[in-house]
Design a protein that fits this description.
By secondary structure, the protein is an alpha/beta fold. The chain has helices at 2-37, 41-45, 68-79, 99-114, 131-137, 161-170, 187-211, 225-230, 240-250, 270-293, 298-308, 310-330, 335-359, 364-386, and strands at 46-47, 57-62, 88-95, 118-124, 146-149, 155-156, 175-183, 221-224, 255-265. Strands 1, 2, 3, 4, 5, 6, 7, 8 and 9 form a 9-stranded mixed sheet that branches. Strand 2 (57-62), helix 3 (68-79) and strand 3 form a beta-alpha-beta unit.
Length: 398
Amino acid sequence: MYIFLAYTVSMLELLSMVVFTSYLIQLFHVMVSIYGLYSSISSEVWINPPPNSSSRVCILIPVYMENVESIMKSFNSIVKQKYPRSLMRVIVIAERNDGDTIRNVEKCLPVLEEHNIRYKLVIKDSPRSSKASSLNYVLNDVYEDIVGVYDADDDVADEYQIAKAVGMINSGYDALGVKVYRVGEGILQSLAMIDCIFWYEILLPALSRILGCPLISGEGLFITRKTLKNLSGFPEALAEDAMLSIYFISKKLNVGLMNSIVYEKAPSNILSLVKQRIRWHRGYFQCVVKTLKTEIPLKTKVILLMVYLSPLGLFAVSIAFTHLLLVVTINVGSTVMLWWSLAIVLGSFLAPFSIIEEKYRINYISMLLYTPYRIMLGFVAILSLIIPRVSWYKTMRN
C-alpha cells in the first residue's frame, strides 16, 4: 500500500511539472504571437528579391506512394518557371520497393522532356527511413550551384520562384525558405490553413527576429551546394528542416525568408493529420536533444528549446480549456490556476483569429471548430511522447 501511494504521489508530481512546463512554453508562444501580430515584423522579414537567372539549379523531388496527379502537379509547377532550361535540372528520387510510384513518375517525365528540362530518375536501393535519406542518396550526383527541394503535390503559383531564389542566394544568402500553405476544400483543410497563416504571418516572423535566424520549411527550400557539403548533407531526422535550423544557427550561416508560396494539399482525414503531427512532434523532440548538445549562445538555445517544445505548449491549451470547463461546471480549481488558464486560452486564440478575420476568407464554421481542433492537437502532442517509434509516415492528401 505504501509503495502504491508513493508511486501515485510521484506520478502526480511529474504530471504537475509537465503541466507547469507546458504552461510556461505556451505563454512564451502567446507573447511571441502578440509581438508578431502588433508589429510590422512580417513585412520586414519576408524578402521580395529581384529575379536572377545566372546560376545552375538542381531541383530534388523525393517521392513515395504518389499518384500521377500529385507528381504532375509538381512537374507542371517546374515547367511554368521562368528560368533558362539550360541551367535547370530535376532529380526525382523513388524507392525501389515502391513500384507504383516509379511507374507514375515515368508516365509524367515526358512533360519535362517536352519543355527541354533535363531530368534524372534515381531508384534508391537502401531501405526507406526518412526524406533526408532520399535527398542525401543523390547529393553526389548534384553538380549545380544551388539545390532546391520540392515534394510531389507541390503547387507553385509564382512563375519566378526559382529565379527569385537564385537572386536572393546570389546576394549573399546560404539558404532560404518560403511559405508553405496547406490547402483544401473541407473543414479539416481549412483548420490546417489557419495553422499555416498563424505560423507564416505571425509566429515565424517574430521568432526569426528574436532568434536572428529564421526557421525554414523543407519544401521550397533553396540552399547552396557548398553549404550542403559543409553540413555533410541533410540531417537524418524526422523533421530534417527543423534540424537544419540548428546547423544554420550553430555555423552562423546567412539564412533568409523569401516572400513566395508553395501550396500543397492538407491531410485528407483525421488519421492522416494525427500521423503527420506525431511525426512532426517526434522530429521536434529530436531537435530538443540536438539543441542541448550544440554549442550556441545560451539565449538562442533557450529560445530554440521553447520552439521545439511547442508540442507541450499545445498540451497546455488542452489542459487550460479543460480546466476552464471544470471551473464553469463544477467550480473546481484554484484562482491562480484559473487566471493562468484564461491567459493561455485567450492568448492562444487572439492572434490567429485577429489576422484571419482581418485578411483571409476562412469560413466561420472552421473558426468555430478551431478551438476543439487545437485541443485535439494538444492530446496528440502527448501521444507523440508515448509512441515508442515513428517512421517516415506518408501524409495522405487525396
